[in-house]
Amino acid sequence: MVDRISFLRPLSGEKPSELQIKARQAQQEKPSIRAQLKAAKEGQQPKAPTKDKSQDLEV
Length: 59
Hints:
Elements: H1 16-29, H2 33-43
């Protein structure tokens, strides 16, 4: 349907339906945000435990 409307056709001459297919394929290849966050979290080194301020106080 979109291919029949001339003013929606890109200047490159491609059919809009072809562009939609390419966009869907590119989106499927990209990992989800959740997967990206998980990979980033696994790549980080764990932080050293913070020092408790109450241990610094002398009685």
